[in-house]
Design goal:
alpha+beta; two-stranded antiparallel sheet; rod-shaped
């Protein structure tokens, strides 16, 4: 199989994340070469690592930050309610 005159073997791909030879996609991935038989598995593992493993950290941080903001907003709301202040939420309150 050639793509623009280049074979898969010419790319010298192994089961590490592209550009990150220390990130093994499978056990001993730096010694396992990508060929036409395992290309689909390689692409799936790269996709999984990039979109699941790396984004998990960002999503977790975002969720934790959102929880903190929600906690602060909720405390402010409770304090106003305890003081007898009527508070109406508008979408502009979230800008």
């Amino acid at each position: 199989m050639l793509i623009k005159g280049c074979s898969l073997a010419d790319l010298c791909l192994d089961f590490t994340f592209p550009g990150q030879n220390d990130i093994l996609l499978v056990e001993a991935g730096n010694t396992k070469q990508v060929d036409i038989k395992n290309l689909e598995s390689y692409v799936e593992l790269c996709f999984k690592f990039f979109f699941v493993e790396t984004l998990r950290v960002q999503i977790t941080c975002f969720r934790e930050g959102l929880e903190q903001v929600k906690f602060i907003f909720f405390n402010e709301f409770i304090n106003k309610m305890n003081k007898g202040v009527t508070y109406v939420l508008f979408f502009t309150d979230f800008k």
